Amino acid sequence: MTEEVDLTNRDPNNVNDHLRVAFEDVLAEPDGQHSMDCVWRLSYKCFTCSKSCCYNILACLCGVPLALCWGCEFAGITFNHVWQLTPCLRCYMINCGMMQKFFGTCLQCCIGPICETCGLFFSNIVVKQG
């Protein structure tokens, strides 16, 4: 495994687009209700810095252990699909195919002649208006 990790684009499939939260997405002052400029600038710096610092601290503390846990979880899911669910589904499909042939043969042998006879019987009925 010589695959390199992309350190620039860390969400190439946009899995977490819903988490893109900027200061402007959370705090906004309507026209006519503005705080002092220095308060607004300081609020912006506090918001962005605390969000970044908290995320980095949590990522450092929990990122690697959680990545290990999620790697094991998805390995287990893959193992379950490869060695249990897919063979079980294949077995089920084989058996259902056989039952389909069996049921179709029974219908052709038992119900088919009855339907054919009824069709011939009712096709000879003539309605006259008079």
Show the helix and strand layout:
Layout: H1 23-26, H2 37-123
Structural account:
This protein is mainly alpha-helical. The protein has two helices and no strands. The chain is elongated. The N and C termini lie far apart (88 Å).
Task: Give keywords.
cell membrane, mainly alpha, elongated, 130 residues, golgi apparatus
Alpha-carbon distance between the two ends: 88 Å
What integer is the average pLDDT?
91
Q: What's the oligomerization state?
A: single chain
Q: Please tally the helical runs, counting DSSP H or I stretches of 4 or more residues.
A: 2
> How much helix is in the residues?
over 70%
Q: What is the structural class?
A: mainly alpha
* Number of E-type strands: 0
Percentage beta strand: under 5%
Shape category: elongated
**What's the main sheet like?**
none
Order of helices and strands: HH
Are there runs of 5+ residues with pLDDT below 50, and where? none
The radius of gyration over CA amounts to: 34 Å
Provide a concise account of the structure shown.
The protein is mostly helical and 130 residues long. 70% of the residues lie in helices and 0% in strands.
